[in-house]
Amino acid sequence: MEESAASQGEKKVVAVVGGGLVGALNACFFAKRGFQVEVFETREDIRKAKVVRGRSINLALSHRGRQALKHVGMEQKIVSKGIPMHARMIHSLSGKQSPIPYGRKGQYILSVDRANLNKELLTEADTYPNTKLNFDHKLQNWSAETGLMTFGRPDGSQTEVQADLIVGCDGAFSAVRKQFLRHSRFNYSQTYIPHGYMELTIPAQNGEFAMKPNYLHIWPRNTFMMIALPNLDKTFTCTLFMPFEEFEKITTGDEVIEFFQKYFPDAIPLIGADALKRDYFRLPAQAMVSVKCSPYHIGDKCVLMGDAAHAVVPFYGQGMNAGFEDCIVFDEIMNQFNEDFSAVLPEYTRVRVPDDHAIADLAMYNYVEMRAHVNSKWFIFRKRVDNLLHFLMPKTIIPLYTMVTFTRTRYHVAVERWHWQDRVINRGLLLGAVGVVFGGSYLLIKNPPNINKLVVPAEKIWNKLAALITP
Amino acid sequence: MEESAASQGEKKVVAVVGGGLVGALNACFFAKRGFQVEVFETREDIRKAKVVRGRSINLALSHRGRQALKHVGMEQKIVSKGIPMHARMIHSLSGKQSPIPYGRKGQYILSVDRANLNKELLTEADTYPNTKLNFDHKLQNWSAETGLMTFGRPDGSQTEVQADLIVGCDGAFSAVRKQFLRHSRFNYSQTYIPHGYMELTIPAQNGEFAMKPNYLHIWPRNTFMMIALPNLDKTFTCTLFMPFEEFEKITTGDEVIEFFQKYFPDAIPLIGADALKRDYFRLPAQAMVSVKCSPYHIGDKCVLMGDAAHAVVPFYGQGMNAGFEDCIVFDEIMNQFNEDFSAVLPEYTRVRVPDDHAIADLAMYNYVEMRAHVNSKWFIFRKRVDNLLHFLMPKTIIPLYTMVTFTRTRYHVAVERWHWQDRVINRGLLLGAVGVVFGGSYLLIKNPPNINKLVVPAEKIWNKLAALITP
Questions:
Q1: Residues of the signal sequence (chains A, B) (predicted)?
Q2: Among residues A47, A40, A16, which one has the least CA distance to residue A29?
């Protein structure tokens, strides 16, 4: 292997803007390469903060995220504090629970605590002697030409810092990205979905989990839904997703209970009626935004990663995983181009944009699938067919969820493959159905029954066929 | 009719930010209603400026734009200085010219001079005693809560102005819109297409037009194209649309001529080889952006109109027409809600967003159609079928282009209707083709020919059928 450019001469300065999940992990990646790393975070050090606000409490960690953690030696530490979830657990209106596995036996995603993960990553970044963490530094301005940044401090003063590379990991409302909007031919979109979310808690019951812990619990109700992820302290964090206008319709505690009695009756005793009446009004429902942009870099001095480059809606559980994978992809390209930023940055844009756009679209697709399709018989039937085919031909037919969650298949390749598989499987099912109809017809002609008894079944068969063609 | 709110009490102040086409026209609309209108334009007064730079020279004015001009008594004045274009004139590689009419006999679009139109509109706005035009006023900041705006002046000083309504008509890179991005749940996208454009001139020959004047000349060449619109001074303005990377490949005068010889040989003598070699390098190719956003208003004090709300790519000739129609739509809603901004603004967003998004999508669709489909036999065949059906059933089948260009059918309704018509016509054509095949088969069975002679025609028929199903 060639010696890295950084180790040949003076160590270059990499400024990571944002000390959240992707920023802290990225600091480890750059530190491992020997760069002089400076992390700048607007907020105080969350390891010392009393109250951490505003973001979801737990997250689903899967293969891509784990691979990135592994790269900096953090995988086992984080996994040991996560709770495996092997399947979705669907709660019907009647309270019936039915599991739909995520993949094959032994495949699972992990419920991890966001705040703890962030703390662990910051502590890990701190162990590198060539890394410095700067909290209470709010980016005010920066230049893509010179790499000079100006930060505002809580006392009103300003600090100037110059870097060889600015890595914008400052989230969905990125301050680094604002500068990109002023550059010509920067493609950008931000889309708010009509749904908001609200977090509620299911406390432990007699020191134990109130529901089966190793599942991601889902209450799909078509236009809205609730999910629940387990926490280490034996509580569950519930997230209610609903159109803002529905949230606004509920204005009293009694209306909350009425609403839950209608749609989530089994959740009332779990959350507790009094807690529900109180917690529903604790915080207003939060907005969810999907951000896409391109390119991810300006010149050879600035690059966007994580939510700053591609905020996604949370319905595929891939936001953090995609951000963590960004770090691996960038690292791989750094190897390929011997840390020459002028070559690495354009290549990173070329390689990563189609994948991030694919996962953003998939998350938006799952926004409908999770709350609506999960209820449909066709959906469950197709999941079973896919899983069976995957079992029979593990290299030919791989369910989309498996490719996204349990492999590092490039997101856009997974989507292309999914469309191909879908066509092949639907055609196979159609052919099978046609075979059954023809076979049946043959038998019927051999032994003709009363014609009047035939009309209804024929219509049913036709409906099934029609459903197969247009699922 | 009810008396307007403005005439009941003190005249409200409407600040129109931007003195371009839509801003100047809008000033007339608000002035006609009796508001105290202030127009703020960053640039100097173009009526006094020596060189007007940066935007296309001529534009296609059609029904929607004319209706808006009519509303303020400007239609005849502008139409008299426009040049009617009755059809597209397609230039093939061999130099053959074939017209494709825009609509029925007597229907045409008008080539108008942008700078002259802008000057006439500013002069018209100036005739209202309740209107004041402020040039050299660059918007620096404004508040959606108070309606207070700060403008920078060329001497470095600042002016503050307070308004009851701020109307952002400041174009694709709107300064007013920037503030919207800071508000929660504002959906926004800006998409640059890979093509750039460059303007060239075909001079008059012996004091006459060098080509037939009453056409929009098109040289479609699949991945790129050139168009030419006539001017009053008997010149044509050509616009070459091409991917930026193709523009960049051409670096010398000889390469320009080589390129034109390959793709636009008939244009070289028209433009003149020497002028072509020189003018190609006069200005770099310009970018084209498509901007969509929603909502168009904040509270009851600010609204976006024209390119500021919906910049579209120029391939449907509807950018200005859609912007002018904005003024009529807003005016209609002002009547409906008796000038109550708190009701008018949300209604304007509700009504206008789907239409503007539809025309933005159509313009993007035509970006492909104009340079590629126009060459295909199927496209020309379908245009003929559509026009014939429109002639036979003028109220049932209306070509999309006609609805968009020669009516005020809401853009999104035109698109829905187009999809419906397309399905109906394609099915009709398919049925017709199937009938021909069956009829032919019947005749063949009656009089069986040599089977070997049948294979090739059968394949051809099959290919035609396949093309009908998937045009």
A1: none
A2: A16
